[in-house]
Write a structure and sequence with these properties.
Helix content: 40-55%
Strand content: under 5%
Distance between the termini: 81 Å
Number of helices: 4
Oligomer: single chain
Shape: elongated
Structural class: mainly alpha
Largest sheet: none
Number of domains: 1
Length: about 140
């Protein structure tokens, strides 16, 4: 004789709240800061069109915001990164160079061979908040 199995019951609001509280106890602020930094770099790279298939998503303003966000968080997070700080700085540098290129109307270096174009102006002047290579 086979027993009928009851469908699994949905957790109550109190059970969900308790589970959420248990998760919050495990999360550390530095983990969220580091994850935010990595997310900004990844999203900035996508908005710069650096990942294959994302060329149509280029948005210089979004890249600028990602760069500024990383630059703001980096002094807080850098001591927590240890040896990984160099990789984060390198990724930020690449994102800044990509921003300078797309803000200047060029595709990032990975899309086409870099050739000097003396007739075209370079990237826009620095606002003082964003490092622009060559300026």
């Amino acid at each position: 004789m086979s027993e009928q199995q009851e469908p699994p019951r949905q957790p109550t609001d109190e059970e969900l709240a308790a589970a959420y509280e248990a998760q919050l106890k495990q999360i550390r602020v530095e983990d969220v800061l580091i994850q935010t930094l990595v997310s900004l770099l990844n999203l900035g790279g996508r908005k710069a069109g650096l990942s294959p298939g994302t060329e149509g998503e280029r948005d210089p303003e979004q890249v600028r915001q990602a760069v500024e966000g990383v630059r703001a968080l980096l002094p807080v997070v850098e001591p927590l990164l240890g040896q990984d700080a160099g990789q984060i700085r390198e990724a930020l540098s690449q994102l800044q160079m990509a921003y300078a290129q797309i803000a200047g109307g060029q595709a990032p270096a990975g899309d086409k061979p870099a050739e000097p174009e003396p007739e075209k102006p370079g990237p826009p002047p620095s606002s003082g908040r964003l490092w622009v290579p060559g300026q």
